[in-house]
TrEMBL record:
It comes from the Bacteria. It is a multi-pass membrane protein. It is found in: Cell membrane. The chain crosses the membrane at residues 44-65, 77-96, 102-130, 142-164, 170-193, 226-249, 261-282, 289-307, 313-332, 353-373, 379-397. The keyword Transmembrane helix applies. InterPro entries: MFS, MFS_trans_sf. Keywords: Cell membrane, Membrane, Transmembrane, Transmembrane helix. The lineage of its organism: Bacteria, Bacillati, Actinomycetota, Actinomycetes, Micromonosporales. This is MFS transporter. Gene3D superfamilies: MFS general substrate transporter like domains (1.20.1250.20). SUPFAM superfamilies: MFS general substrate transporter (SSF103473). Pfam families: MFS_1. Its main location: membrane.
Amino acid sequence: MTASALGRDFRLLWCAAVSSRFGDSLRTPALALLAAAVTRDPRVIAAVTVAAQLPPLLFGLLGGVYADRWDRRRTMALVDGIRAGVVAALALAVAVDRAGILTLLMAAFLLAALGTLFDSASFALLPALVPPTALPRANGRLQAGTAVAGGFLGAPAAGVLFAAAPALPFALDAVTFAVAAVLVLALAPAPVVRPEAGAGAPRASVWGEIVEGVRWLRGNRTLWRVTLLAAASNLAISGILAVLVLYALDVLRVPPAGYGLFAAAAILGGVAGAFGAGRLAARLGTVPALCAVLAAETVALTGFALARHPVPGGFALAVFAAGTVVWNSLCASYGQRHVPAGLLGRVGAAQRMVGLLTAPVGATLAGLIAAAYGTVPVAGAAAGTFALVTVVAWRTLRQGFA
């Protein structure tokens, strides 16, 4: 099923997501390059990255509340409009040579904070645009489109545009946000009717609504277990990503000039997985497919840890990336099908929060292990973590096999 077969509104949402992702892939490396042009202090440069990583942890659950309170279509359009203005102001500051480190920190933090609201609203809006049975395909198409826009188009173009004019990637990013806002506004209105406590009952507090979303997630055994499994998986994934370039260069003997091609294997695998997610779910069922994907990822990571040549290492990485994208697509689809419409923003935000908490731990542990023993034990530990996660998944998710 193609994006067009999923309907007009999905096509608009897909185009908006791809446009926005293309802009993101221009801005992110451009921010790093700009920070490096302003200062060579690695602590300050790293702070720009941290400024973009903190908001999801600080405001993710809050974004879920307002994604459930407000009209999701208008919320997404408003957020993208504001982000367009922020990046346009940053482009202007760069063009007139007024973009210091404080400006970069503020822009990175604000854009990421706004993104938490947009992500929650987008996750909650999709089930209103496509039938429940089409959600795995729809999520797969979204991941495929954003992967191509970011990995194959935006990332390679970012350095070229920055070299031509440092303000150019930011200006183009502002345009992509504006285009995305217009596309989202063109969606047919699909208001979510939230259940009320009773006639005349006051609205719960923000904290009360956060607790309601977390409590619902905790009370759904399958979704909660899938969320914990995803968090455990992210521990290994963040560890591998933290040392991937060193592992590729030192262990797999990838030539520095060929690293971009090696990394492209992961993008190709992810795109293939995105297109296969819907078919796998239709054939096996969502929960059995999740368990099968974990087993495949374990085999792929084991092969990656044992590989000593770029070709088998790249192939294993591609298979692993395909499995990761399938897992993400099916997890999102399962939640979108089973969570009540009025809770989708909060429950989705809570799932993302749990998953994000393990990422910095995995990256930190990987750095410490690699510094003491090299990168090979990191890959082995990641494969072992996935093996354990797979065993736990097959033992605890059996009720979802029906």
